[in-house]
Amino acid sequence: MNRRRPTLLAALALTATAALTLSACGSGDSSKDDNDKIAGADTGSKPSASPTASTSSADRPKIELPSDLTYTFDWPKTGNEKKDAVLADSEQFIKAVDMAIADQDPLSKAYLYYSEGEAAAGSQKFIQEFVDYKDRITGAKRYYGAKVQINSNGTAGLVYCEDQNKAYNKSLKTGKTDVTSNSKDNYVLYNSVLQVNKQGVWVTEKLTSQRGSAVCQ
Questions:
Q1: CA 61, CA 161: separation in Å to the nearest integer?
Q2: From residue 39, how far is each of 16, 59, 63, 107, 183 by CA, in Å?
Q3: Distance of CA 107 to the CA centre of its chain
Q4: How do residues 153-212 score in pLDDT, each as one tens digit?
Q5: Were 116 and a residue from 43, 54, 109, 152 both cysteine, which residue would form a disulfide, CB within 3.0 to 4.6 Å?
Q6: Structural contact between residues 100 and 69, judged by C-beta atoms closer than 8 angstroms
């Protein structure tokens, strides 16, 4: 989330495997140094074998966020095991990116655990912008209108909305929060492609976004 810089991964291309019904979001109720490396550069959108076992909670990175940053995920469980796993791992990816911003770490292992390829590289670039400005995110973020599709090739498509009206940039140098007015541009539509890996984790491989989307308002 950023008022001064591009929305997360907005430049990434939308792939056909992520094409879902966008009306699902219509309701809020439903080698110099490490920073020069490219996150996920040695990974790609390769078909994954069916996982032999689910990843236990002990294997997953711990997500620790500032106490002044809160989340609401208004996407209830679907009752479908795969779809619910996609939603759960996408939630962790979102939080892991924000943790990397708070920690000022563009190569944080947490978001790299939940992303590969274009999504990982795009996340690194996004996080680096906050590092360059010495900013992080504060306030409240709300996600809603999620729709999941499990594709015949083993990938999953996820469309969801974000309300950023109560989330702001906070300067790490001054401690000042840049409070901005509510705007239609603070409603963002996301469309992602995920693939389950051998550890049973649904990793985000591609992600595109549309700021000011009418279907999210």
A1: 25
A2: 24, 20, 19, 7, 32
A3: 15
A4: 999 999 999 999 999 999 999 999 999 999 999 999 999 999 999 999 999 999 999 999
A5: 43
A6: no
Q: Assess contact for 203 and 8: CB atoms under 8 A.
A: no
Residue 148 contacts residue 154 (beta carbons within 8 Å): no
At position 48, the amino acid (one-letter code) is: S
Burial annotation 130-140 (CB, 10 A radius, 16+ → b, else e): bbeeebbbbbe
Token pair listed for 16 = 């056909």
Query: How many degrees, rounded to 5, is the angle at CA 74 between CA 16 and CA 188?
Result: 50
CA 109: distance to chain centroid? 14
- For the entire predicted model, the pTM comes to 0.79
Measured in residues, the chain has a length of 217
Q: Which of 189, 141, 187 is nearest to 20 (CA)?
A: 189
Amino acid at 79: G
The amino acid that residue 173 corresponds to is: K
Instruction: Determine the 3-state secondary structure of 107 from DSSP.
Output: coil
* Vertex 48: Cα angle to 20 and 61 (nearest 5): 90
Mean of pLDDT over the chain: 82
